[in-house]
Structures are given as structure tokens and as C-alpha cells.
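Q: I have 45 residues here and want to know how they pack in 3D. Can you give me a structure?
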Amino acid sequence: MRKIFVLFAAAAALTTAACNTISGVGQDASAAGEAVTDAAEDAQN
């Protein structure tokens, strides 16, 4: 029973860490997209 609890706790910790990482990547990609859009608009004008 204890092994199952330890495995569950480890899986929960990894899942939480993965969500934070994926969120950070999404924010970075969004910022990069905005920078490309701004550069394209500057070049067009």
C-alpha cells in the first residue's frame, strides 16, 4: 500500500511540474509571435 502512495505522490509532482513547464513554453511562444508580428508591421510601414 505504501508503494502505491509513493508512486501516486511522485506522479502528481511530475504532472504539476510538467504543467508549469508547458505553460512557460506557451508564454514564450506567444511573446515570440508578438515580436514577429511587430517586426512585420514595422517593415510594412
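Q: Anything worth noting?
A: The chain has a mean pLDDT of 79. Residues 37 and 43 are 10 Å apart (CA to CA).
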